[in-house]
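Why should sequence recovery work at all? Because a backbone constrains its sequence more than one might expect. Tight turns favour small or flexible residues, buried strands favour hydrophobic ones, and helices have their own preferences. The token representation captures these environments compactly. In the example below, the structure is given first.
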């Protein structure tokens, strides 16, 4: 297994030949606003999965989702507010992608 990067982002080749990439995106995504993410490296053939974890105010319930067809080069994330507070933004999110 080879790895490049660190805690804030990077990639590694897995023993089965797949590649894992990860990172953090700073954004101010609010309800319905798309955020485009470009991977630091393109996958050779396809991205199989993207997982995201939002960073939010603890009093805000937010659903953050990924478009249904991430490409070899990136994906789009969308936020939906689930609480009635004044701070419904998502200042950033961690992401992890696996592909080949």
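From this structural description, the recovered sequence reads:
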């Amino acid at each position: 297994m080879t790895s490049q990067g660190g805690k804030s982002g990077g990639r590694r080749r897995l023993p089965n030949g797949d590649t894992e990439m990860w990172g953090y995106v700073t954004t101010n995504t609010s309800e319905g606003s798309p955020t485009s993410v470009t991977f630091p490296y393109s996958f050779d053939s396809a991205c199989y999965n993207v997982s995201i974890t939002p960073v939010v105010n603890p009093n805000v319930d937010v659903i953050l989702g990924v478009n249904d067809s991430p490409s070899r080069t990136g994906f789009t994330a969308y936020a939906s507010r689930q609480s009635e507070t004044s701070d419904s933004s998502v200042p950033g999110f961690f992401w992890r992608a696996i592909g080949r």
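A few observations help interpret the result. The chain has no helices and eight strands.
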